[in-house]
Design brief:
The chain has about 250 residues and is mainly α. It has one domain. Helix 1 packs across helix 6, helix 8 packs parallel to helix 12 and helix 11 packs antiparallel against helix 12. The protein is globular and about 55 Å long.
């Protein structure tokens, strides 16, 4: 598994995908932080993290579209299936490589919040900052945990889609469509009269599940939900290759 992890992580920087992903993520996060916090002269980072989640519509497929599709295209899939590693080891190795790049970029983007401190001191708001930094710090940590969990779930979904086709563009487009659907479910909730249907949609909607994190609260139910989605799609990817190995 570790060999696959190293190979996959290295491959992101042997071509442009890794650099494009990191560059776009950091540029988008910096612009969003500037317009949603500094320009707005607020410590509220809820809008920033919400927009970051919607940026995953484009960013996550960049990470996942090649994970298995490239193996099919280069005809190296059989080498993976006959390698001395379990299917779970193969799938987890690729997943962890993509997740490592994602997590590292998210953590680097947290530097964006340093100007909040600089701004507070430059404007003579030291006391106000001191009184706000505690709750704001907790909110930023909770939101960061939330988007990391959402990112992990989306990476697992994208990896599953990548295992179904050798066309990277098709894998990216399908992943984009699924992420859009999962993020926009809450928008149709208001037009549904049936309470049971609204409840189910609200329960599975990623944005609804993120709400407690945005409020500065750590929600164990949301944690379990995102981890369950991640585990289910990892399992589905393993099943795809289990069937292919013996099919």
């Amino acid at each position: 598994m570790f060999a696959i992890y190293k190979k996959e992580l290295r491959s992101y920087f042997l071509n442009a995908i890794g650099y494009v992903y990191v560059g776009v993520f950091l540029a988008v996060s910096a612009l969003l932080c500037c317009f949603t916090t500094l320009s707005a002269k607020t410590y509220d980072t809820t809008d920033y993290f919400t927009y970051i989640i919607f940026s995953f519509i484009v960013l996550i497929p960049l990470l996942t579209m090649k994970l298995f599709s490239e193996e099919k295209k280069l005809r190296t899939e059989q080498l993976l299936l006959t390698a001395p590693v379990s299917l779970w080891g193969m799938v987890l190795g690729k997943f962890l490589a993509a997740f490592t790049l994602f997590l590292g970029t998210v953590l680097v983007s947290c530097i964006n919040f340093f100007p909040l401190y600089v701004y507070a001191n430059a404007e003579g708001l030291g006391d106000a900052y001191a009184s706000a930094v505690g709750p704001v710090g907790v909110s930023i940590i909770c939101c960061t945990v939330g988007i990391v969990l959402i990112g992990a779930a989306f990476i697992a979904i994208g990896m599953f889609i990548s295992s179904l086709t050798e066309n990277q563009l098709a894998a990216a487009i399908i992943t984009v469509a699924i992420i859009v659907a999962m993020l926009l479910l809450n928008l149709i909730n208001g037009s549904i009269e049936n309470y049971a249907v609204r409840f189910v949609i609200d329960w599975i909607c990623f944005i609804s599940r993120f709400a407690p994190f945005a409020s500065g609260m750590f929600d164990p139910a949301a944690l379990l939900y995102y981890l369950s989605i991640t585990a289910v799609f990892l399992l589905l990817t393993v099943r795809v290759y289990d069937k292919r190995r013996w099919g």
